[in-house]
Fold this protein.
Amino acid sequence: MTNINSRIAIRTATQNDWESIIEIYNQAILEGEKTADTEPVSVEERKDWLSLHIDKRYPILLAELNNQIVGWCSLSPHRPGRKALEKTAEISYYIHTHYRRQRIASTLITASIETAKQNGIANLFSILLDINKHSITILEKFGFNKWGHLPKIAEINGKVCGQFIYGKQL
């Protein structure tokens, strides 16, 4: 049996990939408990966010298997324009529902951490729902620690939950 990670290609997203990025993100929205968005979004609605990632310092990295995008991981600026925070970035990742639990997220996070270091980013953080146990587990695996908790601030499918902030100094 071939290891799927040996067949995964990691590359930087371009504008041509935006539809696939949003498609995977919308899968997470429809599942619930993976993001604070509750209704699917369009490329047009996320165009400003997607445009931030054309900058090589804050890319969206894609995982491809047989020329199909199976996941992505973004590095986003934290409070853009505030000079004192320019070495801090938010990391987010989403995996296509058919390709989860195959270490694709780990491959993307590893590549994103290396990219962040190369781009002079010293701190990474992730904001996630406190009911998202899988993301908590993977972030802790990569040495992220709980930096904060915003209790009972979100309602997902009738369930009240909070958000964790997990962080890592690189």
